[in-house]
Amino acid sequence: MKFTKMHGLGNDYLYVYSETEPTNAPELSIKLSRRHFGAGSDGMIWILPSDKADFKMRIFNADGSEAKMCGNGIRCVGRYVYDKGYTDKTHLTVDTLSGIKILDLKLKDGKAVAATVNMGEVNVGKKMSLEVLGDKVECIPVSVGNPHAVIFTDDAENAPLTTVGAAIEHHSEFPDGVNVEFVQALDGNTLRMRVWERGSGITMACGTGACASVSAAVAEGFCKEGEPIEVKLDGGSLFITKNADGTVLMTGPAEFVYEGETIE
């Protein structure tokens, strides 16, 4: 099996194009995602034909669980299909488990180096208080087609990702698990965000998490609606705009790393 390793701000996946649905994707993702014994990644993404959109994507985390959506991953899907000649379109639709998403590719020297993605409508819930490791933690539940718990903090750099983040992922309030973002408002147009991703742990970036964070920040009055907000992640920056109609636009890079092939 041939695969391509790509990343969006360090959120890396192994990409496979296939005409048929995978039969052993969870097992392959667990095996190949291991950092020291496999190719090393946050998971695997399969690109498939679709009867609803230009392409379909399926996302499997490093623990084998299937995710509904990946903001960094979908930008790389756009670059993959364009650079490899599966399409000559720069305006693409991609079918995901959280609905059809729209991509506009940014070209440089004939290559797709970045993309703006219409992530659809993002829903911000009411602030909730959780009992976590003996303490009370306030978070804002947000749906970006997948679940997020956004926690505002004064010190995102030292956020308790591996303790509080890991505990909230499996909290009883989120029976299907949840992505956990620790967010610091630096100014009205800039957020610092770190993330504990459901099924993958600490990652360098999370596109849906950035969308959730900006949406929560707008709801809390930290940022303004309709303006691009820079979200500083461990792997770099994404630019997110929360529109008045509830939809969110995400712009960021998509990077090629290497081609690989399994030998057993």
What can you tell me about this protein's structure?
The chain has a 19-stranded mixed β-sheet that branches. The protein has four helices and 19 strands. Strand 7 (99-108) and strand 8 (111-121) form a beta hairpin. The chain is globular, with a radius of gyration of 18 Å. By secondary structure, it is of the alpha+beta class.
Q: How are the secondary structure elements laid out?
A:
Layout: E1 2-8, E2 11-17, H1 25-33, E3 43-48, E4 55-61, E5 66-67, H2 71-83, E6 91-96, E7 99-108, E8 111-121, E9 123-124, E10 128-132, E11 135-143, E12 147-152, H3 161-169, E13 179-187, E14 190-197, E15 201-202, H4 207-220, E16 229-233, E17 236-242, E18 247-253, E19 255-261
Sequence of secondary-structure elements:
EEHEEEHEEEEEEEHEEEHEEEE
Model regions low in confidence, pLDDT < 50 over at least 5 residues? none
Computed over alpha carbons, the radius of gyration is 18 Å
Main sheet record: 19 strands, mixed
Molecular shape: globular
Can you give the mean pLDDT? Answer: 96
Helical residue percent band: 10-25%
Q: Structural class, judged by helices and strands?
A: alpha+beta
List the total number of helices.
4
The proportion of residues in beta strands is: over 45%
The total strand number stands at 19
Question: What is the CA–CA distance across the termini?
Answer: 9 Å
